[in-house]
Structure formats: structure tokens, C-alpha cells
Amino acid sequence: MTDETPRAHPVRVLLAEDQGMMRGALALLLGMEEDIEVVAQVAAGDEIVDAALTHRPDIALLDIELPGLSGLDAAAELRERVPGCRVLILTTFGRPGYLRRAMDAGAAGFLVKDGPVEELAGAIRRVLAGETVVDPALAAAALSAGPSPLTGRECDVLRASADGATVADVAAVLHLSESTVRNYLSAAIGKTGTRNRAEALRAARQRGWV
Amino acid sequence: MTDETPRAHPVRVLLAEDQGMMRGALALLLGMEEDIEVVAQVAAGDEIVDAALTHRPDIALLDIELPGLSGLDAAAELRERVPGCRVLILTTFGRPGYLRRAMDAGAAGFLVKDGPVEELAGAIRRVLAGETVVDPALAAAALSAGPSPLTGRECDVLRASADGATVADVAAVLHLSESTVRNYLSAAIGKTGTRNRAEALRAARQRGWV
DNA sequence: AGATCGGCAGGACAAATGTCATGGGTGCCG
DNA sequence: CGGCACCCATGACATTTGTCCTGCCGATCT
Q1: Which has the closest alpha carbon to A21: B179, B78, B94?
Q2: A152: Cβ–Cβ under 8 A, 6 or more apart, which residues?
């Protein structure tokens, strides 16, 4: 609660990452920095907001693929309920669509795990200084991808069609008629410019439309 | 250079991991241990053997999903060409089939990235002491899965059917007739006890049959 | 030599999938 | 109010996919 000059106390960081080894390694790594302190670590998306409310971090470092709640959804919720906390997304996949959705969710930065570790602490400091940290190449790709042309239902059906689920399966899960499911699927295939569900799902994921 | 008690020199470790952040963090982490020295880091599977030949590590810490050559294939090659080097597999996915194939490839240990970081250094020491390090629950699952009933061609066709490739696509890639492709696919679906290619591929992957 | 297994292919058939046209219902916006 | 987009549903249709049966070839084992 005592904030005075630029950097009175170390940056308080919340770390959300499901892989134990990665989480531990990152925490150790960040802990070695003079001006950074990892105040909370969580392994599931639905623990993020609670942890942020109790530990009041300056920055939340969020993975996207998390059990419970996606890091992107958690980011959106953080913006509302813990406004003082900036969000830095740290993810395996540099999909253009992820970046788009991260920005929509109010993230202040977007890092891929491919980069060197040294980038991380720097990105945290830059985000805290008010900068928006994004890989320029990725930003370009995200812009060229455009917004999603898929309707909500088309998304649902596409998602439910993963892993070899049949039309009947999807219809049962979503309480739709089989005809309707096929219609949505056909629409999604058309909009993605692909030849079948599998390709459509792949394309939609790639562009962040699901 | 300074020899003390148990070991004359620190354990020489080769680290193969494609995610830069993970690789860097692990290297830093292991480097902090007194008795461990990371002598080489590579990001691609096809660099592993070369690096091992030049740096002569005691242990190779290998991810499975790597560009170029899979960590499992690299492990098999290491056993042949760098016999003094033990292999410890470190992977995201605790699929039973991965474990099976790792053991077939002559790995001395199998760790999942989910576990705590502290496990890692301990596992390295235990492997070096001659132990075989495997998660017991995973070992049980691997045994219950049984060996692959799929023939070589059935595997090929299944793999080529990923991501929505059509029968015609697969036939073209593998230089087969469409009838033949459908026959293999049908056989694979039957042997996996599934309903279509997508499920068959999923099941086969899960059990390590591809 | 005969039996067996795997690779390869063709045909015939049923089931699942994808396409299209059509229509009704809702809510939103100009 | 009239469009407009989205949701949901039918029915008809072409295409793709999955199943089954048959057959040929070569390698391997007994």
C-alpha cells in the first residue's frame, strides 16, 4: 500500500503455469532478479483471480493452456476485478489468434516460450513501465488474420467436433438436430476455406477463431 | 577441476529441449547444483548426436517432441554411437506409449515435466548411479497397454491421415491406391477399437503405436 | 512344399459427411 | 416498420468414408 517513487519495493509477480517443472524453474529464475519477487504460483486457471486478490501482484504472468480456466479468460477477469494488476501472457504457441484474443482481454504483453530466458525479466520491467510488449512479427501476422467470421454456434460445433466426434455426438452434446450440426459444420468449412471438419478446426485454431 | 568426495568431476549433462525459455531455465537451474554441469544445449533432435560426440556428456536430458529428430529416435542412436552416455527422457506428455518406446530405445529414465523441479537433479543423480527412474503409475499403464498390433503400413497411413488429410491425399503421398489406403485405415480402426480415423489416430498415439 | 503374414489392389455396399435450397423464429438497428 | 444477422430445423442430394470379400505377390517359418 506504500507507493512513493518509481521503484520502492520489488515487482510483485504472480506466476500461472501448469507444468510444474516450468513453473518452478521460472520462479527460481525470476527470484534471482534483484527487483523481482514471485509472490504467488498457481497451476490452474481458476485459481488466478483468487490468488491475485490475496497477493496483489503488480504483474500476472499467465500461460494460456491451463486447466480450469484459460489464461486468456483469466486475463479478462483480472482486468475487471484486479485493475492494478497488469497481465503478461507467456505461451507455447505463437498463434496470431491467441495474440489477438490476448489484446482483446486487455493483456499488456505477449511472449512466446521459444525466446531466450533473458527476455522474460526485461519484458516484465517494460510492461511495468507502461510499454506493451509484443513480438513485431507476430503482431503483423495477427493483423493480417483479421477478426473471426465464425458465429458463436459455428465455434461451438467446431470445438465439439474435435478428436473424431461424429455428427451424432456433437448433436447430442449441444442438444441440436444432426442436420443443424451439419449445416454449421458446412458453414465453418466454407468460411475457413477448407475441405472437412478436421482441416476447418485446424485452420480456425491457427487463426484464433475458436 | 577440483576433485573432492564422491565424484571426481561434476556430472556432464547434455540438454535437448526446443522451447528456449524452458531450456534456458533448466540449464540455469542445473548449473546451480554443485555436482552438475551443463556442457551442451541443443534445440533440435538432429543436433543431439553430434553434440554428444563432441562434448561427451555423462547424461543426455532429452525432450521427445523436437524438430528434426524425435528425442526417442535420438536416444536409440545415442545408445549405438555414444554408449557411455545415459539417456533421461523429459517430456510434457506422460503417454504410456512414450514410456514404452523410451525403454525400447534404451533410456535409463523417464520424467514428466509436470513434476516439481527438485525431482530433476535427483533423477539425474539416480540415473548416474545406475538406477532406472520411472514414475510407477506410468510404468503400470505402459505395461497394461501391450505392444503395438499395427503393421508398419497401417502406421504410415494413420500418421499421414492426420489433420484432415483425405484418402486421396494419403494415397498420393504414400504412392498407394485409394482402395489400399481405405483398407489400412479400416484395419487400424478395427485394431484400435474406434469409429473413424481421427479416433484411431488419437488412440494409437495415446498408446504409443505411432 | 505348405502355411502364414504383410503389402497391395479392386469391387460392391452401407453409413457418415458435406452441400444446397428453403423456411420459421428471434432480436437488433436504422 | 423493414431489413439483417443469427439461430434452428427439414429434406434431397453428391461425395467421402468405412466395411467386407476376393485375389495376387513375396518373404519367412516349419
Answers
A1: B94
A2: none
Write out chain A's pLDDT in tens, 210 residues.
444 445 567 899 999 999 999 999 999 889 999 999 999 999 999 999 999 999 999 999 999 999 999 999 899 999 889 999 999 999 998 888 788 888 888 899 999 998 888 899 999 999 999 999 998 888 888 777 677 889 989 999 999 999 999 999 999 999 999 999 999 999 999 999 999 999 999 999 988 888
Q: Rounded to an integer, what distance in angstroms lies between the CA atom of residue B160 and that of residue B165?
A: 7
What confidence category does residue B7 fall into, taking pLDDT thresholds of 50, 70 and 90?
low
pLDDT at res. B3: 42
One-character DSSP codes across B160-197: HTGGG--HHHHHHHHT--HHHHHHHHHHHHHHHT-SSH
- Give, as one character, the DSSP assignment of residue B33: S
CA nearest neighbour of A118 among A194, A195, A26, A48: A26
B92–A24 C-beta distance less than 8 A: no
**Contact flag, residue B19 CB and nucleic strand D, below 7 A:** no
Average pLDDT (B156-166) is 95
Which residue of chain A comes nearest to B164, CA vs CA?
A: A198
Tell me which residues of chain A, numbers 113 to 142, contact chain B at a CB-CB cutoff of 8 Å. 113-120
**Domains of chain B (ranges plus CATH)?**
11-144 (3.40.50.2300), 152-206 (1.10.10.10)
> Hey, is B30 helix, strand or coil?
helix
Q: Are B90 and B114 in contact (CB under 8 A)?
A: no
Contact between B166 and A195 under an 8 Å Cβ cutoff? The reply is yes
Measure A142 CA to nearest chain B CA, in Å: 22
Higher pLDDT, B53 or A208: B53
Residues of B within 8 A of A44 (CB-CB) are: none
Which of B15, B21, B22, B120 to mutate to probe the A interface, most A CBs <10 Å?
Answer: B21
Q: What is the DSSP string of A18-54?
A: S-HHHHHHHHHHHHTSTTEEEEEEESSGGGHHHHHHH
